[in-house]
Batch of 2 targets.
Target 1
Amino acid sequence: MNIKNVYSAESLNEAITLLKANEGKAKILAGGTDLVGTIREKIHPEPVEDVVSLKALDELKAVREGDGYVEIGAMVTLTELQKNEVIRNSFPIISEAAGTVASPQIRNAATIGGNICQEPRCWYYRYQDDKFNCLRKGGDRCNAVVGNNLYHSVFGPSKVCQTPCEIHCPNHTNIPGYMEMIRKGDVHGAAEILFSVNPLAAVTGRICPHTCEQHCNRKKYDESVSIREVERYLGDYILEHPDQFFRAPEHGTGKKIYIIGAGPAGLTAAYYLRSFGHEVTVIDKNEHIGGMLYYGIPAYRLPKEILGRIQSVLEGMGISFRMNVQVGKDIEMETLSEEADALFVGIGAWVSLNLNFEGRDAKGILNALQLLYKVAEHEDQKLGKEVVVIGGGNTSFDVCRSALKMGAEKVTLLSILPYEEMPAEEEEITAAEQEGVVIRELTTLKEVVKKPDGSIGQLIYQKMKKRDEDAEGLDNVIPEEGVTMTDTADSVVIAIGQGIDMQGFGQLQEKSKGIDLADKDAGKTVLEDIFAAGDAAHGPATVVKSIFQARQTAAAIDESFRSEVAGNVSAGKAAISFSEKALLNSERVKPEELPLEQRNLYTEISKTIDELGFSSEAERCLNCGCVAVSPSDLGAALTALDAVVVTTEREIPIGEFFDTPAGGSTVLGGGEIVTSIRIPKSAALSRQIYFKHRTRKSIDFPIVSIAIDAEMEGETVQEIRIAFGAVSPVPRRAYEVEAFLKGKPLTKETALAASELAVRDCMALAENEYKINLLKVLLRRNLERL
Amino acid sequence: MSKPDTTFIQREGKNYLGTYRPKIDAKDKALGKVQYLDDITLKGKLPGMLYCKILNSPYAHAKIVKMDTSKAEALPGVHAVIRCDDPELRALGRTTHAWTDIAITPKESDTIDRFWDRVFLPSRALWAGDQMGVAVAAETPEIAEEAIKLVDIKWEMLPPVYEMDDAKKPDAPIVHTEMNPNSNQLKHGDDSVVDDLVFERGDIDKAMEDADYIIEVEKTFGGTSTHGTLEYRGCVIQWGEDKIDVWTNHYMADQTRMFIHDYTGVPLNRVRVRNGNSGAHMGKWNTGEDTFYIITAYLSKRAGRPVKYMMNNHEEFHETRSENRYKIKAACTKDGRVLGFDAIAEGNTGAYVGGCDHNVEFIVQETFDRIYYPIKNVRLHAYTWFTNKIPGGVVRGIGNVQLSWAFNPIFQRLSDLTGIDLLEIIRINCGNNFNQIGGLNTSLDRVLTEGARLIDWDKKRNKTPGGGELIDGYKKRGVGVGVWNQWHAELNELTRGYYEVSIRLNPDMSIIIQAPTSETGAGGNSAAVFACAENLAFLNTKPEDILWTPLCDTELTLRDNAPTDSVISFLYAEAMAEAAVKLKAEILRRVAEYMEKEPEELDIENAYVFEKADPENRIEVGWFMLHTDCVPIHIHHARHNVNENAGLPYGAWFVEVEVDTEIGTVEVLDMAVVNDVGCVMHASGAESQQLGGQALGIGEILTEEMQYDWETGTPLNNNYIDYKMLTMADFPSVTPLLIEEWQGLGRYGAAGIAEGSFCGTGAAIANAVYNAIGVEIDKQPITPKKILAGLAKIRENDRKEGK
Amino acid sequence: MKKDKVRLTVNGRSYEFLSGRDFEPGDTLSKLLRERLGLTGVRVSCEQGACGACTILMDGKSVLSCMTLVIEADGSEILTIEGLNGKDPVVDAFVNTYGPGEGTAMQCGFCTPGFVLETHALLNENPNPSDEEITEALSGHICRCGCYHGIHTAVKKAADHICSCEGGEQNE
């Protein structure tokens, strides 16, 4: 094993400094029976460089009797626990539990501190060379949930860290969080989780490119969860209950803020800043709010009524709108800046990027936004029968599909990139092809031969090819020498992206690009009290990115409003759940769509999924957590004794000590060392049992273990504490069962009823249903032994 | 309860053979003096030695499309890298790792070509762990492992197939496209086989008509257990200028030499292979040679230094017991007779052929002659399928363990139907094609009777399955039996051809013998020493006077003999008996010359040569040697077995189990193992096999099970914590009983005991579970889930019948 | 402080090992004993603490040398199988277990040193162990040849022998 340094700590402080000096790569060596195995098998992605042995710290090896408690040093070996008189007398359950661990030689070296900090024994987690790199080690997913879960949790998974869908949502929406609320039937609670980070869910529910779905783990089994459709349902729900969401603030702050630009960034900033009591006015050069949402995206994808409703609910909160006012023309930015306490600039990216080629000036060549603007304003735009669109992103497909709905008979899309590298959403590409759009990959427009009257005559295309088969991207595409094709068209639309029009905002400009941000995260511009977000500040991107940027910038504007970036839910212990139906193969819900022939520019093609589709889709979410169990025998026993773990930094009740963070199994921070375990003597009741069920009578880890600490008065249970090991991600106190048993005579019937209560919340995975029966039977038998 | 006295009494009184005495190497082993491969080839002893690491495929079915080994080659400490597209390696062509039945078959002579399914470092991976793609030799194991990780591979994933029923579908992915592009089925033994009918005897269709009952079973065993030995496979090879030196723990140096000779072209006399003790065998060497030998050899040639290859604990899960499924219809009569078997035998051999195909063809046919000979009418269809699972190899008791699991329940059902006790049913239907044909086989009868007595069958056997009373409210007990024939008797070892021994009498009357075999624990070495002493009584030789040398060396020692099934014990005993006669004749010849007599006039007793006519005229052999030329007398003797059938003896396994009917666990409370071996070579050693074998026998049924991740085809518990082998705490009380009822051929007439020491264990436990709770388990292992499912089904049927 | 010097007594002889010269920081005790001192009676198999083959005695207690870093053994007294001779009562008992029904205490011999040393560790602490105590003490060792009966019998023989030598009362 190539470990760089092995230290023998002479003092706790020295150990702490050594651990902190190389955090993540320095590990504690107590007994070594777990650590040496993990290093030799290279189960973690990064190698362990420093090992800090605590073997020389004698003060951690004592068993001390205080008044009313017994304190066991973290380095006390399990063999010592078996034999120590103090322990055997007051806490036989600890001696019993220690005696069931592995084998005598392991117990000679293994320590109580090491036992409660040991890593999970799940065979995916422990596989040599980190082949599976599972969720519990910071990877993508738990392979056991739908894999081989013979020895795994029967009480559902436990949250480890952000899941792939959360990570790949630019707005870090807590998707598993609201899916769980839906499964619990709390639609309002789910809407609140989503609304807390996204006031425009009705918009993103329709047009977001849903990168979350591309990374949904379910994709590896059947189909990813249809997250966007679920968010659309919640978005509509929010707009239908504005009073519960778009609430006017109780009191004003007296601050006045101008929002320039009513696009997704502006509207988001407006909502947050208003919700904190500021006086908010939105100024926009156009007639209608929404920016690109109104003028860039056709109504069949995003109906204009939705933007209308958003405006009314925002006005309902006290936000005022001044439309048809162009900053830099009708009013200067400076004057606005003087009138307000802060400015938020969200002017988007309205300049269509140009493409020059010979014959660019022919009549009938226009850019995407010109066309879509006219479509939005219901103005007529003669395109003729044959339209050629240049692009490959979502906007270019909006143009193509709109052109067909405006009477074009042959619409061709030229993409310089290969088919699979086109940035547009899959659904948009497939819908376009269904509606008749022809896609020519690896093709660009080289020249337009004009007719005498200046209109388009003949188009000359240049065939492209990839330089390196395996590489991707624009710079990997080169012309295929001498291979050109010809075509005819009535009009050509260029849709190769947007640029930013800084007219009127000169002082904010950063060289030739958009707004110059002094602090990117806070969205602070170079000028005092002027903030910016969205495409203009961070470059053209998606709507949901603008929402995230606007939310962060609103927070910066209002110091008091620290919006946690929802979604980085604190890891672990939050026992989460998923539906048993998630374990069955199923197809994702498909929204109803207008048949091809009925599709037109101004009616929304797809409908929001119904209530049944909404809840069954939430059932498909696996709520990616870790289903490995805590194998610690001492953990279960100490949990039944309400012990306290004393570390170099704090005292932690045992109930809060265990956790399921990535790469660990406790709440301990880097460099934090367990020094001792303190057990209140009051916890030592008269009847203590530790029962461990495993395949062999030695070496094996528990399949199910039960710790009982009880005080009997004759047949009646006066007081009882019960904990289970190896059945859930952390040792599990059976509080309900304890409450049920207290004061009752312990007859066969009560023991049976108690055992049924204990497994009431159990949920079996494919392979481990037998563990539920095992837990029930063993609990009943051990209660009967009391 | 104290154990009944089962002290073994020999049929023919002998001084050393067949007695209770220590193993000759007990002290060396207890003091750790015995050396295994890793001990002999420590880096200190072979300076400059490099370490080989071969890529284990991470995928169950995938092809290497592109491979860049430049980073690996550049890593400091790496001395040689061999790729799958290496011309020299590719030129070697195909090889096999199939069971060779000890025959040393040079590549040129026609071996079973249908088993030639391997190449060295293939570019296609056929199971998740397949050794393929690339191999490196580096200065330390860590550097070698690092180098393998630096090889940049572009894989093309291929669809995997794991189960037989999927592999046989027309649209199934084909595992061995090079052998048969349209089917996963392995070709049959001989090409004349039509629609998979491999064997027929009598008229099974008529038997079915005449039958009062037709019993149908479908039983599966295998694919989930493995050898689990503590020492792992390995070798060190130094390919010098014109000589190859090999150290290995392979159990037959001579076979390894032939394999290396075949694929290096170096003449046999310049391929020197040394093996010695190996940390248990359990069948893993029966499948001939592993490809790592040749890969290591060529790495050594390229690097110009000795290269060591050792599997680690994960790689040792290299083969499982072959997975075999038997669907058997049995035509039976009211008076407990089985008229015929109509059997379909299938094998899931996994990625490569090992021992699986033998368990559906010729071992099944052997069974119809060796134990079910009284059953006249038999028909056997056989299929073997390739899949992407760990290859099915040879594990101790190959085929026999699976077949006893499959056929035993038929007799139990017949007993249920007819009311005749199971032991009686077995007595009626079992026997071999030689002993007491048509009558009651005395060997079988005796092992059944003695075993029934030891386990207290009459008292403890529930009259009706599951009929026992409930103990503590949830436990039920039952008693079961499994029978099988012993094998590896004289006739079965013909394929070994000649094997040789030597006796060297030193002037001080101390003796050195060569009876070379790799000592895997079966104790053939002890038997050879005892047999030598037994047959040198005329020199008063005692076992302590004899030295046995453990190391086999194809350059310095005689040809070693593969220690399968402790068969070495009696092969060398037979050889020693004949060699002793030669030694006596040679002593007489030399002394006669000295005494100026004719040899026939002399004889030897109590280490004295004396004149028969005048016994006083005598010379002590030791004195003679010391005072004449002081030269040791050396005898070499080679023999091969007698090609004659003497039938076979039998073994019986009796088990008492306790089943927890609430959580489905099974515990073996007591066990009796009775084996008739014709002639016991070493009572302590034989009983140690009867006892020790149950560790694997019971483990395979109750605790050991390979677990897979089916999404990636990865074996999940290929390590010694999660693959659960019995410890002392799990080992039940077992009573061994040795019997000499049957009489084999040769001076002693013995049969093997070690390999078959648990052939009936699985069948007996299953039978005992059935007797305890009335649940028949079809697929090994017996797990709590299957027990509870069986009990639930019974409750369901009872409910339906209104019980 | 960084440990780069380790003092050990192995089978009665004392040694001083230097990190970098005699061992690497990550080396286990089993590697040092086998490769540096040539004590090949220390057997390494599972490398996960689950087979007991690498068992040695450290200050009289049984320890898994393949799971112990060299550093951890500083200042301790190590006994490997090479520290025992033929007259050792435990070795003698293992050799001379061959009676009817007992089988033998070893077959292939790979795991035997581990069992012998574990028996010493047991008898050091509990010279007159019950059957259950013997089984419990040796339950961390795997013998794939399955010689558990023979080994158990050998341990009882060794215990009787040690008790009778020290005049302890006979163990019925």
Target 2
Amino acid sequence: MTLKIIASQCTSCSACEPECPNVAISEKNGTFVIDPKKCTECIGHFDEPQCAAVCPVDNTCVIDTSYPRYQPPA
Amino acid sequence: MDASVQHEQATIPDGEKLSAVMQTIAEHKGCGTSGGSGKASCGSGAGQNDLPPDIWEKVKNHPCYSEEAHHHYARMHVAVAPACNIQCNYCNRKYDCANESRPGVVSEKLSPEQAAKKVLAVASTIPQMTVLGIAGPGDPLANPEKTFKTFELIAKTAPDIKLCLSTNGLALPDHVDTIAGFNVDHVTITINMVDPEIGAKIYPWVFWKHKRYTGVEAAKLLTDRQLQGLEMLTERGILCKVNSVMIPGVNDKHLVEVNKAVKSRGAFLHNIMPLISSPEHGTVFGLTGQRGPTAQELKALQDECEGEMNMMRHCRQCRADAVGLLGEDRSAEFTTDKIMAMEVNYDIDSRKAYQAAVEEERVAKVVAKQEELASLAGQSSDIKLLVAVATKGSGLINEHFGHAKEFQVYELSTAGAKFVGHRRVDLYCQGGYGDEDSLETVIRAINDCHAVFVAKIGGCPKSDLLAAGIEPVDQYAHEFIEKSAIAWFKDYLEKVNSGEMAHVVRGDAEIRQGALISVA
């Protein structure tokens, strides 16, 4: 799985962008998006996904269940 | 210093007048003070030396730090810092109305390069623009690269503009050296509590070192970092103002403790502001029905803290992209599209010449006040009352009653006229208020005042005001505010003393909230 940003909730505050350890977040059409290929849910980096922890709007950076769970390299 | 000494200094020959008057101000208080009480217009009872001349020199042209300066000098904020590292229950970043006036809200974000261009465009158009602040709409120090890049660009192209920033303080200790390195000499920290138990009711969480903290733990972290940052700044000689939001039932009484804590750590000015909490803003406090203070509750708290240190009472709680004098917003003239199309000719010399003219106007105002004050010497009375003034700026009674978007409020006593606040009376774009009788709005906002000074007023509002017990005064049209207010107060005292009329105590007044309908 990966995280995704609910565009209708995003305030474009940019707080998540520099926090992402994988540089997976960028601005697109006025809001921010997470590249599912780069997102690791912060597993191995931090205790909690950084985008969700810093986001000012609850339930905006959420797990995208359409992707398989991230598997950290052995 | 008594009033007669001031009078002497104010009437010495022209050549020496300016420096003498400035020295009088500097020695006395710093914020355009007057009168035997030793209270400045932005207030302090802590003694004559609580604002030394070197600090006065730094703040005298800063509208956000000197009440006296805000009539004459303008500031602008550039919205380069959208990210924030804490959550406050009085803030909601999600909704922006272009006509809204409250902190944390902007219409468009700028890159540092756009911001630098905007500053030059505004400074070329508004020569009294002396101060650039970065206040968000998030926290400047949660966006350190953007904030400091903006300072760097502006320091290069417009070195005469003062730089300042306003922060929640969480990241402050990490950036104090950089702040000092950019010659930022004014920093505002918003401190709403020094007790984490109270903080937990104001801040749901803070984000620090890759972790979201909540509850008392979050508030403890925040208050420790804020006070540490404040100490580090004042140690380096950087002027610090502390902003506090007054939230009745949550931190209102506690702000007296906050006042002591920040004073002991070197803050030179404390600005206690009323909570803005309309439900349509969607803030936690707005939705839970947490009320803001009344005008008299706010004033009583400010008065209580004033014995400890200088209090600021002229804050307009402006937007993070505001442009112009406090109380006016010209940001609509300087949208990104417009500034990018503007030819900018930044001429330091013409700005200096303009500011010299402003300084003359300002000195004339101080002299007028001091002369009138001298005539009050010897009078003694326990009467203290408030009057409202309609003004467009420059320290003059120069606004028509019906055109006023706000009234300035002065407290009059035998010690003189002291600025104690302002009351917004503009209309608001919120449901239910559109059809409201605007005269009723004004009366509710200045209901604690005995008189309202205007340049002009129509017959109808005049009789309605009289019926509400507020005397409309238009005989001092286009004259200096303080001088006129003192003259009127003298007449008032004479009438009361001669038995011609009785002094009555007025009630409380309402602090208006909500979104401002732009009239520009």
